[in-house]
Structure to design on (265 residues):
């Protein structure tokens, strides 16, 4: 809990400092948030500009049979587009703190994912996207989000602007490096996110998502988030996700930001 709370304080401090800064036209592009939803948009960040996402996440699972589990982490993502159609991002969890059933609280870094992205634009309001990702098991045992071995994922994306509404849909297939003997090696994920502005600076996001794996419990959750854009190169977010079945953690609470860091080329 404390590591996520500290992350939120850092996010708020940076956000407030940036919001008070002079918002003159210095050539910085608008931020393109991928967080906090499960789904990602087809859009890439502005070519040549490094963009970062950081935040805090607390997971509470009251469905756990032995002991309600708690997990707090500091997720991050670094994104860079080479041009309007190709980009890459590296992400994971910088710090994870977990409460185990024996009362211990192991702390360490999480797994690391590298994702190559291709955008396929249809017009100004509709685009497809394809992502190929490799999730490396860099976390200490028991702290990772993956299977404990290298996972490979392929994500198909469709994004659309429908007036003031924006829709992102994702279909992901992940080949797990390790799995239970009676469970399938492939895991599917589906996510549908819808967002709408409520003012010039605020917008709301709602999302449904879930996973399916043969001979393993399927997960399902509903997510809601509020985003605040104090300036075009900075977006702050806060929200929560709630389980729709007993195989999904009961609550996930998060806050974070997306910020354009620097021009690299």
């Amino acid at each position: 809990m404390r590591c996520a709370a500290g992350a939120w304080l850092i996010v708020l401090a940076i956000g407030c400092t940036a919001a008070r800064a002079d918002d003159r036209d210095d050539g910085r592009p608008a931020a393109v948030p991928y967080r906090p939803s499960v789904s990602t948009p087809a859009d890439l960040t502005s070519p040549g500009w490094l963009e970062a996402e950081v935040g805090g996440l607390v997971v509470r699972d009251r469905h756990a049979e032995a002991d309600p589990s708690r997990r707090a982490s500091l997720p991050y993502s670094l994104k860079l587009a080479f041009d309007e159609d190709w980009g890459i991002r590296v992400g994971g969890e910088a710090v994870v703190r977990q409460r185990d059933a024996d009362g211990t609280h192991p702390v360490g870094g999480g797994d690391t994912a590298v994702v190559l992205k291709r955008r396929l634009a249809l017009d100004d309001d509709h685009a497809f996207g394809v992502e190929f990702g490799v999730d490396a098991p860099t976390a200490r045992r028991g702290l990772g989000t993956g299977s404990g071995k290298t996972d490979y994922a392929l994500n198909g994306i469709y994004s659309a602007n429908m007036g003031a509404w924006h829709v992102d849909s994702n279909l992901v297939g992940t080949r797990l490096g390790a799995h239970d003997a009676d469970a399938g090696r492939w895991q599917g994920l589906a996510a549908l996110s819808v967002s709408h502005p409520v003012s010039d600076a605020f917008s709301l996001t709602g999302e449904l998502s879930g996973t399916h794996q043969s001979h393993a419990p399927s997960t399902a959750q509903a997510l809601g988030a509020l985003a605040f854009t104090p300036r075009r190169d900075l977006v702050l977010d806060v929200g929560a996700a709630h389980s729709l079945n007993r195989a999904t953690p009961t609550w996930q609470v998060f806050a974070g930001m997306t910020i354009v860091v620097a021009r690299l080329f």
About this structure: The radius of gyration is 18 Å. The CA atoms of residues 29 and 233 lie 6 Å apart. The chain has one domain: 2-22+32-263. The helical segments are 2-20.
